[in-house]
Write a structure and sequence with these properties.
Elements (H helix, E strand, L loop, with lengths): L2 H31 L5 E5 L2 E5 L18 E3 L7 E2 L12 E3 L7 E2 L13 E3 L19 E3 L5 E3 L1 H9 L1 E2 L9 E4 L9 H4 L5 H47 L3 H15 L1
Helix pairs in contact: 2-4, 4-5
Length: 260
């Protein structure tokens, strides 16, 4: 084959293979952008991003924004910051179970309220979370298997979220102001105890005690002031009695008019 023909054949082959090389390079570059142990896939027609058992210590930043299902379970994530998922407008399911999450900032789920269907926070280290962290969220939420402090804050949270079916029995009092509640299901406890009402009564009693204390101080001061003035007036009258009669009458009149 003439050299010119061989060169032409090689050129045509390179042009035919170039798109494949570019596609492969693009895939490798995209894969390299993901944290180690994370990968995209498609499950039941939904864009899925899995980072299970990836030893993550924070929510990844390079999650594809067309993700429908996100699995961050079985990692070491300690808390959820504000706007952690704001760039995921199509997210339907979010699995954060089996992490070390002990804190959820207000606004952590901002941007997910209209479309998120399922949120799994089970088996973490949640003790107390503000209801504002789940504001306007319509998703079914799993809060089971966390070391919850049973108090008014948890009661308000449970009233705010829509619990996932079958998960309510797993919300157990790990600690409580009343020892007999420890180890019991929270929903069982609040059937007989209104934590927020107890808190309100305690606050009202504290305010009454404070007001009574101030009132007692004011009365004590007034009593002291009156007695002190009476003692000063008595001493002055005794002094006047010791004076000559003319001077005494003059100063008595002055004292009486002053007292009146």
């Amino acid at each position: 084959m003439p050299p010119a023909d061989r060169f032409l054949l090689r050129s045509v082959a390179m042009w035919l293979l170039l798109p494949s090389f570019l596609l492969a390079a693009s895939c490798l570059r995209s894969a390299a952008a993901f944290p180690r142990g994370c990968y995209p896939s498609e499950e039941e027609g939904l864009k899925t991003f899995r980072c299970s058992h990836a030893r993550l210590t924070e929510v990844p930043r390079d999650i594809p924004n067309d993700t429908n299902k996100l699995y961050l379970d079985s990692n070491r994530i300690p808390f959820l910051p504000r706007d952690a998922f704001r760039d995921l407008p199509l997210l339907l399911e979010l699995d954060l179970s089996h992490n070390a999450i002990a804190s959820v900032e207000s606004g952590a789920f901002r941007g997910l309220a209209d479309h998120l269907h399922s949120l799994d926070l089970s088996s973490n280290k949640l003790v107390s979370v503000s209801k504002d962290a789940f504001s306007n969220l319509k998703a079914k939420v799993n809060l089971s298997n966390n070391p919850w402090l049973c108090d008014c804050r948890l009661q308000e949270l449970i009233r705010t979220v829509d619990l996932a079916a079958g998960s309510s029995g797993g919300i157990v009092c790990d600690s409580s102001a009343q020892e007999e509640h420890v180890g019991k299901s929270f929903l069982q406890v609040i059937a007989d105890t209104d934590f927020c009402n107890v808190y309100k009564k305690t606050t009202d009693i504290a305010m009454l005690v404070t007001m009574f204390g101030w009132f007692a101080m004011v009365i004590s001061y007034l009593v002291y002031y009156v007695r002190q003035n009476q003692e000063d007036a008595r001493r002055h009258l005794e002094y006047l009695k010791s004076l000559p009669s003319k001077q005494r009458r003059s100063e008595e009149s002055s004292t009486i008019s002053t007292v009146v």
